[in-house]
Amino acid sequence: MTVQAAILSCASSSVTGHIAHQAWEAGAAQLISLGVNTPRRQASMIGQCAHESARFRTRFENLNYSGEGLWRVFRKYFSSPAQADSYARQPERIANRVYANRMDNGSEASGDGWRFRGRGFLQLTGRSNYRVFGGVIGVNLEADPDRAADPELCWLLAASYMARRKLSGRTLLEWADVPDVIMVTKGINGGTHGLQDRMQLTALAYEALSGEASVAEWQSLLLNAGFDPGPIDGLMGPRTDAAIAAAEAMFSLSGEALLSALRSIS
Description:
CATH topology of the largest domain: Lysozyme
CATH architecture of the largest domain: Orthogonal Bundle
Distance between the termini: 24 Å
Largest sheet: 2 strands, antiparallel
Number of helices: 16
Number of strands: 2
Strand order of the largest sheet: 1-2
Helix content: 55-70%
Structural class: mainly alpha
Strand content: under 5%
């Protein structure tokens, strides 16, 4: 099983997957040195990056919000729905407004919000992040922010971020070791937006890298054998755990042996 298979399993098309894989190969040695050196860590980064980049289709933040969308997502930066409406469908003005005076960006008038808007697979945002994580990979992104969207840098920036961003005393790569997709997601997103998609993509990537059965395959096989794992959603919840336990008890098998038995039924 290969990184190429993992990336393609999460990509929107073979074309986008091929571009993303070429970029990975170009920086493979540096990715290892940054700590992306196990299937769990690789799968976590691939899954999270696939989600953030719409399956590797885009490397630029989409800020083309309606007034309603601005009021819903960025309400604290506007005094009223009417003010949000006045910025609607103007991505540059929106970026300069919502990213002003934070992350070492200047005022709205400085243009820093647009200059240092989200780029790359993990949507690197803000002057300070461009400076710090560009420095980690040896590229002056503060002086040339558009380079953060270059395919050959996207993976390196994602790796440098996940290797250094910490939550509860662990880096995101260390949370990937657990594995804990929720903690990795919080470190990237600030919350848990898109959590189910992130979990499914991470599981797809790990299955391709490790050759292990995905949660979705376990669920499908259990259902076919007459057990109740809940919806086939790729998420290991209490019902799936209970179904596995019931199958273990019935077949007096576990792990790969149980998997083989379930596969023989289908």
